[in-house]
Amino acid sequence: AIKQPELIWFNGNLVHWHDAKVHVLSHAIHYGSSVFEGIRCYETNDGLAIFRLRDHVKRLFDSAKIYRMELPFTLESLEQACRDVITENRLTASYIRPVAFRGYNSIGVMPFDNPVEVAVAAFEWGAYLGEDSLAQGVDVGVSSWNRSAPNTIPTGAKAGGNYLSSQLVVEEARRHGYAEGIALDTQGYISEGSGENIFLLRNGKLYTPPATAAILPGLTRDSIITLAEAQGISVVETNIAREALYLADEIFMTGTAAEIVPVRSVDGQIIGAGCRGPVTEQLQSLFFGLFDGTTPDEWGWLERIYLK
Ligand code: PMP
């Protein structure tokens, strides 16, 4: 359960947590018409900072554009809402969840008859795949469910409806005793986890499905590609066959909630030495080093926030 802060930003105002309510006939509840983001705020050596705030809010607008959903707020005002839910709730390290959705007016499928509502919540959220996941790694399985085919439900939008696919993937994975499932695309290539992108290392090179594949092009994925390349580690964005997972020297998954999670087995096959590999550990250190100051933020990824 969420440890509830006091306030949620809802359609332009800060309201009490329990007052941030919607009608049961809201369009989004029936037809999945929401777009959302997941953003982390870190405690750094230099105060609180939101990681890649601008890029996340831009992606929210991109997701909305795909669905021709006009957000009744500017990018700047939603960035400010993200900062406000941290400062007004006196939160420290936390997870920020902006969501825009079609509200209540008519019950037809046609989306435009309903008002667009926007909320931003923030709360504490620890390691998504478990406290030990970052150091110990997790066991995963290839899902029997495929990711949506191109030109069906676009995986490039972070839309509520996409997470029906993710729910099938993660529920099946847990039922089989895995922490997470890896979905293949409709051609049989690797796509992503239910809430993470995936990388594998083989003979010193990193491989990950291309941004044009059936994936959400994650910002953590992008950050890891940037950090790896800055260290001279080459990253190949290409289609990856299922069996390449079993032959990898290392595998890890990336996401805002999950962060950088080593994978120690896939479908019961041990990956590498069956524990976090050295390159995965190096990339974790570089990533988390952004927050303790050991990795210089050359890219302007840290959006500092100042407590009032
Ligand atoms: N794929 C899916 C399906 C996701 O839900 C997420 C989490 N937002 C990711 C990938 C990783 O994206 P990011 O690194 O931007 O959080």
UniProtKB/TrEMBL annotation:
GO terms for biological process: aspartate biosynthetic process; isoleucine biosynthetic process; L-leucine biosynthetic process; L-valine biosynthetic process. Its cofactor is pyridoxal 5'-phosphate. Keywords: Amino-acid biosynthesis, Aminotransferase, Branched-chain amino acid biosynthesis, Pyridoxal phosphate, Transferase. Transmembrane segments: none annotated. Pathway: Amino-acid biosynthesis; L-isoleucine biosynthesis; L-isoleucine from 2-oxobutanoate: step 4/4; Amino-acid biosynthesis; L-leucine biosynthesis; L-leucine from 3-methyl-2-oxobutanoate: step 4/4; Amino-acid biosynthesis; L-valine biosynthesis; L-valine from pyruvate: step 4/4. It comes from the Bacteria. Its EC number is 2.6.1.42. GO terms for molecular function: L-isoleucine-2-oxoglutarate transaminase activity; L-leucine-2-oxoglutarate transaminase activity; L-valine-2-oxoglutarate transaminase activity. It catalyses: L-valine + 2-oxoglutarate = 3-methyl-2-oxobutanoate + L-glutamate; L-leucine + 2-oxoglutarate = 4-methyl-2-oxopentanoate + L-glutamate; L-isoleucine + 2-oxoglutarate = (S)-3-methyl-2-oxopentanoate + L-glutamate. Gene3D superfamilies: 3.30.470.10, D-amino Acid Aminotransferase, subunit A, domain 2. The keyword Transferase applies. GO terms for cellular component: cytosol. Belongs to the class-IV pyridoxal-phosphate-dependent aminotransferase family. NCBIfam families: ilvE_I (TIGR01122), PRK06606.1 (NF005146). Acts on leucine, isoleucine and valine. This is Branched-chain-amino-acid aminotransferase. It comes from Pleionea mediterranea.
